[in-house]
Design brief:
111 residues, mainly beta, 46% strand
């Protein structure tokens, strides 16, 4: 998967969800399963609430966030990479966001 938005990695300890600014990250990931069709783990979700703006926003942590990676696709060079992520619990405000209900897409090539 493109956990750092630049190069594929296997069982990363950190996944950057907001490649543009790093404002959403799953960190300290402990993988509980990694197969050819699904990967599951537990992490701490750290995000910027962008209130009143992303520059002046506040960082929040959601420990014990469960994540599931699914839908592997062939990337450049023929590697399989995960294309979808579901996390639980959903962060505050998630129900009104663009990715409401997930799973949401992951980068499948270098950003």
């Amino acid at each position: 998967m493109y956990a750092n938005c630049a190069a594929p990695s296997f069982e990363p300890k950190v996944i950057i969800l907001a490649c543009a600014d790093g404002g959403a990250v799953l960190q300290d990931i402990v993988w509980t399963s990694w197969t050819s069709t699904r990967a599951t783990g537990v992490a701490t979700y750290v995000y910027n609430d962008c209130s009143p703006s992303c520059v002046a926003g506040h960082s929040h942590s959601v420990p014990d966030t469960h994540l599931t990676l699914t839908d592997p696709v062939r990337a450049a060079g023929g590697r399989l990479v995960w294309s979808r992520l579901q996390q639980n619990p959903e962060p505050p405000g998630y129900q009104t966001g663009a990715q409401h209900g997930g799973p949401y897409p992951l980068p499948t090539e270098r950003m």
